[in-house]
Amino acid sequence: MTQAATSAIRLSRRVLELPASQTLALAARAKALKAEGKPVISFSAGEPDFTSPHSVGEAAKAAIDAGQTHYPPVPGTAALKAAVLRRVERETGHTATPDRVLVSTGAKQVLYNLIHALVDPGDEVLYAAPYWVSYPAMVQLAGGRGVAIQTRAADDFRLSPADVEAAIGPKTKALILNSPSNPTGSIIAKADLEAIVTLCLDRGVVLISDEIYGGLIYGNAKHESAFAVSDPRLAEGVVLVDGVSKVYAMTGWRIGYAVGPPTLIKAAAKLQGQSTSGACAIAQAAAAAALDGAAEDAERMRQAFERRCALAKSLLSEIPDVVVPNAQGAFYVFPDFSAYFGKTIAGEKITGSLSLSELLLDKINVAAVPGVAFGADNHLRFSYALADDELREGLARVKTLLSGE
Question: Does the pTM exceed 0.70?
């Protein structure tokens, strides 16, 4: 009897060459250890630890009761697009029309659609380093080349207009600007933002302004939106990307949006129509309620993050030889731990941020994301989207381990 031949699955080169998300991998490992009963404290999460506002859930229930359970329009429901435009005008003074809005399944899909709508093989996309881990991967999947523009901790990781100008070349298609930044929490200064916007418009480079953390600003800092820059060409060369995940604690609802040039928005919607189609209709109703009526809830959460930001920076500063940058937004601190590289701690040689993060998880059940995932190996990213007592306990464990107390 002849055995039937088996066919091996041959994966595409693009997926084989694609790096896995280290932030998601570490978060998954931390959750698995916690499920085993380990006392894990995770600083890896990129999401608020709060539940969504009550009004959001009520809006979702009302949408279900009203029978809004059918396919929504691919670019987004009229109600949510109108709420997006109202929020953009309130926050930035910029007015736009519904044909300039695309709603997607989270801001991540928005960015993916935009990059694939813009980038041909060989095109370059610029972004600051340290960078969010998915920017390079998205550009790579589109066949483009990501160009990281190095920023410096001494400058609070702020992107310099001069460095942007030096990085722009004949193949540059777009610049992704992320302020407040994941992973650094840095905020771009108004003058620098205006200079970068003008530079991109002058050079024909599309500016994708990722402002998903724009409502999470602390102290005397102020969020500067690219849409607040005064330039008549703004509507044709700048795309604002935002969503409800971070500011309104709605990560699981998966709603993000873009406001930008109609030609680009239409192209991105065309891609979305061949992939996921429209985002969940119930979630869109919930998002509209958040944008129009959850400001008090958002401010309550922002105040909690502001307190935690100060606490996290203070506790990290107590760890010997750790340099803590002045994070002013989002919910991350990105301290420099390179003073420990080359040392042996708890029997393990520290060779970089990855080995240090593994040591913290293995020895003291603390999860922090290695900076190498963000293009900055000297650092670890700590999210302070967790309760104050966990913050204190987790960072006390780190201090005890590294200082040998």
Answer: yes
